[in-house]
Design a protein that fits this description.
binds iron/sulfur cluster, pyruvate-formate lyase- activating enzyme, about 450 residues, alpha/beta, OB fold (Dihydrolipoamide Acetyltransferase, E2P), 3 domains
Length: about 450
């Protein structure tokens, strides 16, 4: 970049791909920039330096990351932007390949190098190329500023980094590292900061939130953390993502039941329900124990909404295994559910397994499972008819000015359903309203104020 341009504030654009954990990293990265020297723009297409935080957990996500890099490199060739900085999981997973194949990129930064952002942006601003990849995974502290990339009324809070599990289909531990927990005091301090910035909903995230504290004290400390967060004034909802079924501390159910602000919502990926598949996936739990756990949760926490995800087409999955999964979905009737087709990831034990399932079968099983869940979801929603529920309003519908979009306690942002609210009067985003439910759809509820 020419020296004359440097006296001007440098315009920085950020595009954050992937999961809430990466989004938190992106907020911290922007928080490290000096506001007197850098201006954050609304889009990477309108900036001097474009920052791209990538995802690498499955091939589709890797392809999307590479496509976005190529788009930014194109903008640079057209001189619409001056530099491209790529960071995160894709860089941590494929550092050498990216450096060799994408020479137009000005800097590659691994998922553990974010403390060096100010210096790296400075060097790129002065036309230098940078390659900085070290230990995986970035564990933040409450002392680090964050620039919100979500509406201020809901914020993600990363309580740990990395993962110690050995799921045979997963590469995440290889580029996010071993599990490391933050301290309860530091997390509570950050929650207070986020509330002071307008947050009403705090969403706890990590690769495995239920493993929290185990690396420090050999104790599961999530229940204690939740009790502390429940005391933070100004929080309306505390939402728990990424629980691991074989690491559920017993007290968690009671803490959720007895708390004032913890959402009766549990995101707990199960991945499969047939024992041969759970064994081959090395999930460390059986169908029977999973069923017992869910029954106990539902009995202990009234109105609990459980979100889960399943993988179809895992190597060796027979029609028998798959129909066991469908039966389990029918029996458990999850409120929220996502289905993934197995992605053969280089470097994972599952990639080397025999009996890889043909793509056509994967697709057919994906469609059958989604069709079943659509029916279950609508039947679950029917139970809400005539009830009045608390809804956090996100905004107005773009097509219909008398329709507003909100979320109930059963809906995490981006991944779950919505509550559509018909209202003559304007509603305020970030505020809670009591909404009588008047009709339902497959995944959404409809209400009228
Ligand atoms: S819990 Fe399993 S699937 Fe999740 S990040 Fe860890 S190894 Fe991967």
């Amino acid at each position: 970049m020419k020296s004359s341009a440097i006296s001007q504030p440098v315009r920085i654009g950020m595009l954050s791909l992937g999961c809430p954990k990466t989004l938190v990293d992106s907020e911290i990265i922007l928080g490290k920039l000096d506001p007197s020297r850098h201006v954050i723009t609304a889009s990477v297409a309108d900036c001097d330096i474009a920052l791209l935080n990538t995802c690498a957990f499955i091939q589709d996500a890797q392809q999307e990351s590479v496509n976005r890099i190529l788009e930014l490199v194109e903008l640079k060739k057209e001189k619409r932007i001056k530099a491209v900085i790529v960071m995160g999981c894709l860089v941590q997973r494929f550092p050498g390949d990216l450096k060799k194949q994408l020479r137009e990129v000005d800097a590659f930064i691994g998922s553990g190098e974010y403390a060096k952002i100010p210096e790296i942006v400075e060097r790129v601003t002065h036309g230098k190329k940078v390659f900085s990849v070290g230990r995986p995974g970035y564990l933040t502290t409450s002392g680090e500023g964050r620039v919100a990339l979500t509406p201020s009324h809901y914020r993600y809070l990363k309580i740990s980094e990395g993962c110690d599990h050995v799921c045979t289909f997963c590469t995440i531990p290889s580029f996010r590292g071993k599990h490391r927990s933050r301290t309860i005091e530091d997390i509570v301090r950050e929650a207070e900061n986020l509330v002071s910035q307008g947050a009403k909903e705090i969403i706890l995230t990590g690769q495995d939130t239920t493993y929290f504290g185990k690396d420090q004290t050999d104790e599961y400390l999530l229940p204690k953390l939740l009790q502390e967060l429940d005391q933070v004034s100004g929080i309306h909802w505390i939402r728990l993502l990424y629980a691991y079924p074989s690491c559920i501390p017993k007290e968690l159910m009671q803490v959720m039941r007895d708390s004032k602000h913890i959402c009766r919502y549990l995101d707990m990926p199960l991945q499969h329900a047939s024992d041969p598949m759970l064994l081959a996936m090395r999930r460390g739990i059986t169908k029977r124990r999973t069923r017992d756990l869910i029954h106990e949760f539902r009995q202990t926490v009234p109105d609990l909404a459980i979100r889960t995800t399943f993988i179809v087409g895992f190597p060796g999955e027979t029609e028998q295994d798959f129909s066991e999964l469908l039966d389990f979905m029918n029996e458990m009737r999850f409120e929220r559910l996502g289905i993934f087709k197995y992605s053969r990831e280089e470097g994972t034990p599952a990639a080397g397994m025999s009996h890889q399932v043909p793509e056509k079968i994967k697709q057919e099983r994906f469609a059958r499972a989604m069709t079943l869940q659509q029916k279950i979801s609508e039947e679950n929603n029917r139970r809400m008819m005539g009830k009045t529920i608390d809804v956090l309003v996100e905004g107005r519908d773009e097509q219909n000015e008398k329709l507003w979009i909100g979320r109930s306690w059963m809906d995490a942002p981006e991944v779950d359903g919505n509550v559509l609210i018909h209202s003559e009067k304007a509603l305020q985003p970030g505020r809670f309203y009591s909404v009588p439910i008047t009709s339902v759809a497959e995944y959404d509820l409809v209400g009228r104020i």
